[in-house]
Amino acid sequence: MKTTHCHLRTIVVSAALALAIVLPMSLFAQTPEATPRNEHEYNDDFHTFIINRLRQSVQQREKQMNKQIQQILVSLPNAEKLYDETFVRISSDVQEDSTEDGKTEINYVYNIAYNCHHFEGTEDDYPSGAYLWNTSNSCRAICNLTRQMIDSELSDIFSPGKKVSVTITSTTDAAEIHHIDYRGEFGDFRYMPVVFNDEHIRISVDQKEGISNNAQLAYIRAQSVREFLENGVTALHQTTNDFQFVTRCFDMTGPHYRRSQIQIVVHGAFDAAARSMEASLLNDEYVDFNIPSIEENSNSKTYALIIADEEYTAPLPNCDFASNDGDILREYFVRTLGIPSRHVKVLHNAGRQEIHNEGIRWLKDIITAQHGDVHIILYYAGHGISNEKYLPCLMPSGIDVSKIRALRAKNGVLPENVKLKSCDAKKVISQCIPLDTLTGWFNRVEALSYTFIIDASFNGIQRSGKSFFDIQRDVKKYRNPRVRNDIVIFMAADGNKTAYSFIDQHHGFFTYYILKELKYTRGEVTFQELFNNVTKNQAYESSLQGKLQEPAIILGGKLSEGNWGERTFINN
Predict the structure, then answer these.
(1) Does position 12 have pLDDT exceeding 70, yes or no?
(2) Are the CB atoms for 379 and 331 separated by under 8 Å?
(3) How close are the terminal C-alpha atoms of the chain, in Å?
(4) Mean pLDDT throughout 404-418?
(5) CB–CB of 144/76 below 8 Å?
(6) Cα dihedral across residues 511, 512, 513, 516: positive or negative
(7) Which position has the higher pLDDT, 82 or 93?
(8) Helices 214-232/137-148 angle, 10° precision
(9) Which of 340, 389, 486, 498 is the most buried if burial means most Cβ atoms within 10 Å?
(10) What's the helix, strand, coil split of the chain in %, to 5?
(11) What angle do CA 224, 226, 232 make, to 5 degrees?
């Protein structure tokens, strides 16, 4: 079969398999007593929510892994560097399938491929006649990256005893082969099943006869990758592995037709997680599910700006679940609080200028147009930092790290315990938004009320609990920023403490418990009740997880007298 020239420019492992089999209702069955509506409808919702949540988790990891691998590739030794137009990318997905005995399983699918935009990148592929995985820069890259990602980022998915299916695709060009010595590194093979040029065949290769055709060469290339994975990936030593080989000989010559690729499926990777999620759904613990609604557009004087900064420039880590925080909070604002959808603006991965120009100006223009007859809510989820005087600053996405010496990572990830010196600290802080500045943007801009909700850490610790970086201080302790008289600021934690993520719920702890209060009260809750209940519930759950987190509140001068507590989010 002839392959067209345009298809040959890029050889990439196919995207993760499309969903083909629907989970049976029994997996998500609910007891009659707990069923609030038609059982079939409710179980359909369960299925969709669980698969979407699992896929969201997989995509979260995929982003982080691709961010790491690009930094790792840049840091390769010169002898192993890839051509400038060659890119390596991991794709992953959740796949529903059935076992041989008909049971449903929820699998994890991992693909890694490299893509060369131009033919000039000849040095990245196998030399003519070579078959060892490390003779190709690109194959060496995908093998080593697979080992690093599985053993570090995916070790919980590749848990002991799991069944793992590995498909290795290896190709050759049409160059004629007379004889290639095979040194028997992987043993002799006799009548082994393999897919070659889309047909099922049997193939034999041994040291005595060597390699005399392209089908054998492609097969031995695949066997070289198999040996690396079996011996080099620690997690695969504890799983039950099945290897399959797909080979092809193209009808044209050139190094870009000599490649190997990897797809790995972990069977039943998410079965236990799905059962756990089912139990939580039965107990209505997920705030992303069954969001209550009130009369549409009933809260017409309220306007909200949501800033959800999850993705940051490498080597800065992403802020786990910030995007989901923003998206679900918007649903509560519109559906549960009755804020008109046009009154809610969401900025994802916004930089300092975008926050000011597209967000703050939008709010101020509305206040001016409505002559101050409005209630304003501003929410931020993302990283934070405190400056040399311990003043908290929001750290927007898009921080330029290229000139910050301490952030020039050697291995694609943020170095441990980074302490920024004065010059580096100033370069970071200049791109951030001090909380003083954020509140100051609304000085002398009168509105009926201002409420800020900040889900961020300012103490040098990420949501994940890992160290971020710290700054050399001029003063000895944290102090709250100065706030105008009529602003209430709900903080995920004091500025010298950590705001963590609630991994099972895919939210920041603070945001999750705010959403939970809005869900259970249908928005009919005063600020004092909200703060008290969030404090109690968040402290309890976070302490059970070994990461105690208590929220804080910052009040303007007049509000500190007590009248802030009677405010609500619903202002008819």
Answers:
(1) no
(2) no
(3) 69
(4) 70
(5) no
(6) positive
(7) 93
(8) 30
(9) 498
(10) 35, 25, 40
(11) 100
* Residue type for position 303: Y
Residue with tokens 């802020």: 319
SS3 of 380-396: the string is EECEEEECCCCCEEEEC
CA 362/CA 372 separation, integer angstroms: 14
CA distance 282 to 46: 9
Q: Could you tell me where the beta strands, DSSP code E, fall in 252-382? A: 260-266, 302-308, 344-348, 375-381
The pLDDT score that the predictor gives to residue 71 is 83
Answer yes or no: are the C-beta atoms of 150 and 127 closer than 8 Å: no
**What's the number of CA atoms in the CB half-sphere (13 Å) around residue 88?**
29
Question: pLDDT tier at 510 (50, 70, 90 boundaries)?
Answer: very high
CB-count exposure of residue 210 (10 Å: 0-12, 13-18, 19+): middle
471 residue type, one letter = I
Question: Quick check: 414 pLDDT over 60?
Answer: yes
Burial class (CB in 10 A: 0-12, 13-18, 19+), 44: middle
DSSP structural state of residue 17: P
Residue 369 phi, psi dihedral angles, 5° rounding: -65, -30
Q: Can you spell out the DSSP letters for 141-204?
A: HHHHHHHHIIIIISTTTS-TT-EEEEEEEEEE-S---S-B----TT--EEEEEEEETTEEEEEE
Q: Cβ(484)–Cβ(520) under 8 Å?
A: no
Greater confidence, 336 or 421? 336
> Is residue 152 within 8 Å of residue 233, measured between CB atoms?
no
pLDDT of res. 473: 77
83-104 per-position pLDDT tens digit: 777 789 999 999 999 988 888 8
More confident residue, 419 or 40: 419
> What are the residues facing 345 on neighbouring strands?
305
Q: Is 507 exposed, middle or buried (0-12, 13-18, 19+ CB in 10 A)?
A: buried
Each residue of 426-473: pLDDT tens digit? Answer: 999 999 999 999 999 998 899 999 999 999 999 989 999 988 887 877
Query: What region, left, alpha or beta, does residue 195 occupy, with left being phi > 0 and alpha being psi -120 to 50 degrees?
Result: beta
Mean pLDDT of 126-136: 94
Instruction: Give 564: exposed, middle or buried? Use CB within 10 Å, 0-12, 13-18, 19+.
Output: buried
> Could you read off the pLDDT of 17-75 as tens digits, one per residue?
333 333 333 344 333 344 343 333 335 678 999 999 999 999 999 999 999 898 888 87
Q: Are 150 and 233 in contact (CB under 8 A)?
A: yes
Q: If you write DSSP's letter for every residue of 499-519 in order, what string do you get?
A: --EEGGGTEEHHHHHHHHHHH
Q: 532-544: per-residue pLDDT in tens?
A: 999 999 999 999 9
Note whether 440 and 368 are within 8 A (CB). Answer: no
362: its two tokens? 């939008």
Tell me which residue has tokens 């005893």: 161
The amino acid present at 453, given as its one-letter code, is: I
Query: Which residue is listed with tokens 């609080």?
Result: 337
Q: How far apart are CA 136 and CA 126, in angstroms?
A: 5
The mean of the pLDDT values for the chain is: 87
Query: How distant, in Å, are the alpha carbons of 118, 121, 196, 349 from that of 9?
Result: 7, 11, 20, 33
Angle at 182 between CA 176 and CA 187, to 5 degrees: 130
